[in-house]
Amino acid sequence: MKKIALFLLVLFVSTSAFAAVAPKPAVVPPTKAANSGMIIGVEGGDPYMRFTMSDSQSADVGLSYVNTNAANNTLGVWGRLNNKIADLGDITTSWGALLSLSTGKQAAADCTIIDLIGSVTADYMISKSVAIYGTINLVSVTSTNVAGAATTSYTALTGSGNAYSGIRVYL
User: Fold this and answer.
1) What percent of the chain lies above the pLDDT cut of 70?
2) Mean per-residue pLDDT of the chain
3) Domains along the chain with CATH numbers
4) Strands, DSSP E only, in the chain?
């Protein structure tokens, strides 16, 4: 009888202890709007819009323009799907897939560039509308067509520009 009473006491205390700890509510990552389904921001000079789809997923759509000189310039559109990995204190980590399409001139010849990139990102909110971020492009496939000559390149954690950081400003 003592064993049954002890078992019931342990069971009651342990279930009470678990019941007393309420599950932590889902936290909306700081880079997603808690009260809105859309954010307008700037990342690395590219304006973009972020659409929050759930507490752990968002989609970005942006524009890019690069003009190094009259013979080299591109205008592009890109889209990225972001999936939250975890919150590590005030830092939110996520992985994503980005697809971009750019068109313009390289060495005064018409060019089209298509990129598919898989990346991981960490964000830290400085204030309600400013975040510091760091991104590592894990893998990428780039298809380039310049004056009818097509090339395809593949990278995995190599090449220039695969790791970068910056500031996002949410308007």
Assistant:
1) 77
2) 79
3) 27-170 (2.40.160)
4) 38-43, 46-54, 57-69, 72-88, 91-106, 109-127, 130-146, 149-156, 163-170
